[in-house]
TrEMBL record:
Alphabetized PANTHER family for the sequence: NUDIX HYDROLASE 5-RELATED, NUDIX HYDROLASE RELATED
Highest taxon of the lineage: Eukaryota
The name this protein goes by in its record: Nudix hydrolase 10
GO molecular function per UniProt: ADP-ribose diphosphatase activity; NAD binding; NADH pyrophosphatase activity
Keywords, sorted A to Z: Hydrolase
Keyword Hydrolase: yes
Protein family membership: Belongs to the Nudix hydrolase family.
Domain Pre-nudix hydrolase stretches: 17-95
Organism: Hibiscus syriacus
Pfam families (UniProt xref): Nudix_hydro
InterPro entries for the chain: NUDIX_hydrolase-like_dom_sf (IPR015797), Nudix_hydrolase6-like (IPR003293), Pre-Nudix (IPR040618)
Amino acid sequence: MSTSASALAIEKQVELLTGVEDKYGGIILEIEKYMDSEVFLSLLRASLSQRKQQGKRAVWIKLPIEFVNLVEPTVKEGFKYHHAETDYLMLVKWIGESADTIPNNASHRVGISAFVMNEKREFKRRVASSKEQVSGNSPTGVVDEIDTEFVEILAFRQSHQSFFTKSDLLFMCMLRPLSFDIQKQDREIEAAQWMSVDDYAEQPFIQKHDSFRGVAKVCLTKSEKEYAGFSPVPRTTTASGKTSYLYFNSRDVNKL
């Protein structure tokens, strides 16, 4: 096959690298079937040329983990890693005439500290290991469902360079238990039980550390007085029709 005929054949196959346009002037190409790396590289180059002529600003390529053979040619063509999940890698290349405005990957990880208190002013606490028997703390971790009803965000904390150079946002949430049965996760937790909020706050471990002492003070204030945290108020986005939540001190602010 001649060079011109080969080029024509490649142009006809460019549709293999079609994708979905984003609202920022870019396009996301999803590779859905296996390709030889050399064939892929030819198609990628032709596709990049075509997208540039169309005035696209950025080209994203979503590579499923099983197509790892395509990572090297993609990087050699000037793409850079943007983010990865368990089943795919996302790469991107800026092809616009203006300055590169591609945002960095997410800079924060979000976690929760669950302040689960029942009507008896008892607090659900867990002990991570036998060494913590005298201390114990509230259930914490990355966001996941537990058998409770969300009430409000009492406070939140930010720390930098915490987890793989990411910043960490920890939200202290007040939750209302829907069940009083405690089911602990045996692999990570030594014990779990209900204890009074006062006993929790008086633990030597809590009193020794500023951050834990601060959390305990907020919890005590909430249990004894009127302390207004951030309550969720549903908002509807006009353009998309989706519902989001605005969190604020709804007690002290006129209804929006």
